[in-house]
Amino acid sequence: MNPLKKRRIALGSLFFFLGLCFASWASRIPEIQSKFDLSEGQLGTLLLCLPIGSVLGLPIAGWLVHKYGSRVVIIWGGALYAIALPLVGLSPTTWAIALVLVLFGLLGNVMNIAVNTQALALEDDYGRSILASFHGLWSSAGFVGAGIGAAMIFLTLSPSTHFLFITILSFFIIFLARPFVVKEAKAPSGGGLVLKKPDDLLLRVGLISFLGMMCEGCMFDWSGVYFKKVVLADPTLVATGYVVFMGAMASGRFLSDRLTARFGKVQIIRFSGLLIFSGLILAVLMPYYWVATLAFLMVGFGVAAIVPLSYSIAGRSKIYSPGVALAIVSTIAFFGFLLGPPLIGFIADLFNLKVSFALIALNGLGIMILASYRKEIFDVKPAKA
What we know:
The chain is mostly helical and 385 residues long. Helices cover 79% and strands 0% of the residues. It has two domains: 3-180, MFS general substrate transporter like domains (Growth Hormone, Chain: A), CATH 1.20.1250; 200-378, Up-down Bundle (Growth Hormone, Chain: A), CATH 1.20.1250.20. The protein has helices spanning 3-27, 29-35, 40-47, 49-68, 70-90, 94-126, 131-154, 159-177, 200-229, 240-263, 265-285, 289-304, 306-314, 322-350, 353-372. Helix 4 (49-68) packs antiparallel against helix 14, helix 7 runs antiparallel to helix 10 and helix 11 (265-285) runs antiparallel to helix 12 (289-304). This is MFS transporter. Residues 5-376 form the Major facilitator superfamily (MFS) profile domain.
């Protein structure tokens, strides 16, 4: 088999492992709530520990990758990330699980920067866009993780047993992938501890990611509520919006590399913004089951390529090393992911959910404008081997 193909399969399996770990944790949240007898408010507070850890991990992730290389961070960080998962299930108190979740979030984002840095190096060797397919594998792992979680619940296995099984599987994946994870060329400058001031390129790409991730966060947390309260879907069909959104996002990431090669990054980002805007406006103007299902499908395809293409552009910054550039963009984007869901709730309290979704639709227009104005700064291509 072609060495590049082996590297791609190995790296894809690592993206899959990261998505599997995260989805496994998410699938057992209701049981964690029952174990500690948490109210909704207390559970919400506990769940904040994960994004707190993610934010804490972002400033150091770029520095770690720049100093030690993505290969070292992937191997050691991946092992620690896998070990942190069963610690969640074994935590005896809420304080203990809170600390473990902070660690889990921190390690997750360190790994996010490391695997994307490795993917950018492989993309350069390919000489064409391949990053989105890796993000598609992460998204696909969410479905697999949810399925394994459902099976574990059906078998009445505890979260700690479930998580230990995933840890063993993760170590197996890391062990098989390790020989094909290469040491990338060390960037001569632009390292150091993030946070740094972004240049025009990283600021623009970061804002595009911010708007895209805000849409993602809203769809993750509010799609079911929208189908229940606005679409008035049958209770058995309330999850339809979430499922079609996630399915479209995952499949769209597998398609976007080929589309990017044909039409270019800027065109795909602009079209993605159009899909987000059109889909959300359609869901607002015609909140009927089949129309809203189509609308959420459009939004899923719309957000699919935003983050992978933003990372691909940012990782070729001429000022910062790839790890630091990715950390800067991830930091900006992540705040969009955190801000979106509560913003939806706040606006819905003042007006209603339809107004909230209509305002989030404007993110799509913002993406189109940011990608259209001075679009020449995005003209960065993978270096051919």
